[in-house]
Automatic annotation (TrEMBL):
Species: Grallaria varia (variegated antpitta)
Protein name: 3-oxo-5-alpha-steroid 4-dehydrogenase 2
GO-annotated biological processes: androgen biosynthetic process; cell differentiation; sex differentiation
Enzyme Commission no: 1.3.1.22
Pfam families cross-referenced by the UniProt entry: Steroid_dh
Source organism superkingdom: Eukaryota
Family: Belongs to the steroid 5-alpha reductase family.
Keyword set, alphabetical order: Differentiation, Endoplasmic reticulum, Lipid metabolism, Membrane, Microsome, NADP, Oxidoreductase, Sexual differentiation, Transmembrane, Transmembrane helix
Class of this enzyme: oxidoreductase
Keyword Oxidoreductase recorded: yes
Domain spans labelled 3-oxo-5-alpha-steroid 4-dehydrogenase C-terminal: 108-256
Role played: Converts testosterone (T) into 5-alpha-dihydrotestosterone (DHT) and progesterone or corticosterone into their corresponding 5-alpha-3-oxosteroids. It plays a central role in sexual differentiation and androgen physiology.
Transmembrane segments: 109-134, 146-165, 203-226
């Protein structure tokens, strides 16, 4: 059966950090070409409906840890803190795989980006699941440790902001509409990328609760991946809508 190789965890976590810096260098100045940043000339290329694409992209992040757990004999995930951490990761991706896609009203998704998204979800799902199921060692009272409790609170806060912001974005469009409008309410009162801010807070909370290199590498990747997208969304809104609130920041309330 599979066993823990600390060198593998270190190598995969380091590569994830390097991929984060690559994402930042690629998309800090030019946004990734999908959604509102899509070039018109590219729209005829292969793509899938948004609901199908999001389901396929996020599914490996749920299935891979579940498969790793099924292959673990006997089941490990002790103590309680370790079980809770694995559940948090799978809970997020259960929502992103089986709930979020069936309510989204986004535009058709490019197949090329879907392919790379699926590869990343397989990679990260393996890294986080492998570490928690085969390598992580926590004291029996980890679920009362300040790192776990504060991280859990941040995770739940971030997930709440993310889900609420997604709901507000969906309400901007009637079924069949593809036009973009100014988001209103919730944290959108202060930032253009409220949904992205929520997800970043969520994964940094997970990293603190897990207190592990793989989780911090993933949180850093999330920041480098969707942080620039929030910035480009902000610039798009300012250019497109003359009445866009000038007091809003791109990503972090009152700061950026």
């Amino acid at each position: 059966s599979m066993q823990c190789f600390p060198g593998l965890v270190l190598a995969l976590s380091s590569l994830l950090g390097a991929l984060a810096l690559l994402q930042l260098s690629l998309y800090l100045r030019v946004p990734s070409r999908y959604g509102k940043h899509e070039e018109r000339l590219c729209r005829a290329r292969g793509r899938l409906p948004a609901r199908c694409a999001w389901f396929l992209q996020e599914l490996p992040s749920f299935l891979v840890p579940a498969l790793l757990l099924a292959l673990r004999s006997p089941p490990r995930l002790e103590p309680l803190g370790c079980r809770l951490l694995c559940c948090l990761f799978c809970w997020h991706y259960f929502y992103r795989t089986f709930i979020y896609p069936f309510f989204t009203r986004g535009r058709p998704f490019p197949l090329q980006l879907l392919f790379f998204g699926m590869l990343f979800c397989i990679y990260n799902g393996f890294l986080q699941g492998y570490y928690l199921i085969y390598c992580a060692e926590y004291p029996n009272d980890w679920c009362t440790d300040i790192r776990f409790t504060s991280g859990l609170l941040l995770f739940l806060l971030g997930m709440g902001i993310n889900i609420h912001s997604d709901l507000l974005l969906r309400q901007l469009r009637k079924p069949g509409e593809v036009t973009y409008k100014i988001p209103q309410g919730g944290l959108f009162t202060y930032v253009s990328g409220a949904n992205y801010f929520g997800e970043i807070v969520e994964w940094f909370g997970f990293a603190i609760a897990t207190w592990s290199l793989p989780a911090f590498a993933f949180a850093f990747f999330t920041l480098c991946c969707i942080g620039p997208r929030a910035y480009h969304h902000h610039r798009y809104y300012l250019k497109t809508f003359t009445d866009y609130p000038k007091s809003r920041k791109a990503l972090i309330p009152f700061v950026f």
